[in-house]
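Per reviewer request, we include the raw input and output of the structure prediction for the construct analysed in the revised manuscript.
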Amino acid sequence: MQLPDSFVNEMNDFFTRHNEVPRDGFYESFDKVPLKGVRFSRSKISCSVQEKEFLVDMNEAIKPVLWCSGGYYVNNEPGGRDPLYHAGVYYPQEPSAMLPAQVMAAKPGEIVLDLCAAPGGKACRLGEDMHGKGILVANEISFERSKALLRNIERSGIEGLVILNETPENIAARLPLFFDKILIDAPCSGEGMFRRDKNACRSYMNYGPKVCVPLQESILEAADKCLKEGGSIVYSTCTFCVDEDENQIKRFIDRHPEYHVKAHPEIKGVTHAGEGSILPGSMRIWPHMSEGDGHFCVHIVKGEEKDLKSADEILIKETVGTKDKSAEAALSVLDEVLSDKGREELLQGRFISHGTGLFKMTFDEKLFKGLKVVKTGLYVGDIKPLKSGKKVFEPSNSIALALSKDAIKKDSYLGLRRDDDRLTKYLRGETISVSSEDGLKSSGTIIVGIGDFPLGFAKINGQTAKNMYPKAWRLI
């Protein structure tokens, strides 16, 4: 690969100054085939045995990513037409990119911000770790990229979520000292992506460190204004540039001496900076020393680290008022498919309306007033008027993806095997056939899934099930 001269000069200088990192093999690594990975959802699968079964079913070897629980290397291009992907069972992700959310280790009850969230892999992992019991804010400054973020998060079935399309400065002004943890996967010169993205070298020439360093600095300053005392920031990039990585954090700590680096236990495949290094406690993934693209990650804490869990103070403790007309209309349909457990889970929170849309909230949406909100809460469905004057409820596919199998009545769930041709037909939006062997009720709303993992709704009538899978999500 023809690498930019300025990058080669920069790295030659680095290896001369820091002989603890070998130069041999570094430049050759850019000619190797980029690695692929998948990360299994911690909210869908809690057993590594099942993960391994799925990998075998996907014709993949069982090769874990050492720095990420639930992460595995794969040879084939994941996603696309795979029903497990559509059910949110796994997320295709470059292995090195799995490190920052693992380091952050979000917990239930916390208020967490993913400040540069698209396309959503890290935000999904944060939400999974929080188990719907907290507030996760996923922000993306680009409106176009926020659309991909929305789709990926909806597929994951995460609750307790807000998606913003904002600048870090606006979030800081509106939500000062609000968050317990902040993840910054910062825009960078992208040197670690050279072998993966053909456009990365060209972008580097136009938007290199000189452009990225001041942008990263402004993002860090905004994050500080948002972060509570005792909270933490995980800062990561996919560049090798010291000025964007270690020196960026050193300058930040010089300006804010209340922060300190939190060192993490040694992880095989990750280079941990020790005493005497540029930034002790920081971490790097080198493509010639590890199985991953170039990545930098550091965990910094504001003052003395505290187990804040601030969301516990502001989460809605009430249950949905079932006498509300919108809630009543929704439940009249959803009660067809929900088990007692599923109904109890759905009613924890409050239903709110935006136009025809109905959303389940576990926190007050007014907290984010004045900010550009792409989505808030769990999209329940739409209340649509008929010509007769009556209103009908159409459930959102987000509800199906947020449910576990045991939240659905047995006679309302059609769990299809991977080799069942009805599965592909369903994902294409086609009507599918059912029989008495499926154990379903004779009419009404059902949920179709792959195995134990829901995909979406259908309307059953005798031996046919009319497809309700969203047109925008269907296989072509």
